[in-house]
Specification:
There is one protein chain. The protein has a single domain, classed as Rossmann fold, CATH 3.40.50.720. Helix 1 links the parallel strand 1 and strand 2. A six-stranded parallel sheet has the order 2-1-3-4-5-10, sandwiched between helices. It has a two-stranded parallel ribbon with strand order 6-9. It starts with a strand and ends with a helix. The chain has 291 residues and is of the alpha/beta class. It is globular, with a radius of gyration of 19 Å. The protein contains nine helices and twelve strands.
Amino acid sequence: MILVFGGSGQLGQELTRAAAARNVALVALSRTESDIANPAAVDAAMAQHRPALVVNAAAYTKVDLAESEPEAARAGNETGPANLAAACEAAGIPLVHVSTDYVFDGTKPKAYVESDPIAPLGIYGQTKAAGEAAVRKAVRHVILRTAWVYGEFGNNFLKTMLRLAATRDELRVVADQRGCPTSTRDLAYAILKIAPRLTARDEVWGTYHYAGSGVTTWYDFARRIVATQAPLTGRSPAVHPITTAEYPTPARRPANSELDCHLFERTFGFHGRPWIEETDAITRALVGARS
């Protein structure tokens, strides 16, 4: 059985749906049911469910708010993963931990590989990097760094663009940051697909990059979303490119969030789905659900 912490988040909900569709035994716990920042709550959940694999889909993800809430970010992104790693190590259970492109500063001209030095720009990235370090104390772990996550659940860029497209005639979107949009359903599929190798104790432990195939900018990502929803809603707002300087935020963003995922592909035999195909499918699903 797979035990997921962070079950009410966008990835946690997607894992629940994906497991049900594939007849995979999985229990997903929300923060209310088990707060990973509380070691006693983690230990109780582990004792109750006795999983074969633990997935940490819990995190503090409010990138800008983290600048003014460092303790909350640290609790969710550093203390929580440390508690899970300690519990998994004590029980001899493998741990999958989801991390982020924000551990890098975005100055590299090419795609980031797993061995590149980390240099997070803000509190969110710093606490996620600290969480990775804590997880590495567990012998049997897989850290999956991903980027630009979106899907049908929770709050994300794609859903924000759909909401704005329904009410505005013009959208202004940053065009000088690039990355690899990753759908939660693709990420959930990847976790469930590698799970049997982890529970079999294959020697595949370590840090991997896993993201959607293809690279784009937030501007072109937005244009794709708007173009896909237009024939379904009749709404075609103009999308204008702007610079990062024109859209200041409390937390700095990496200019380059492109992740090289070849190590994951060589190890596990598959790669992320094309971001355009996933974006189109999820956009249609969300618009259809509103109709």
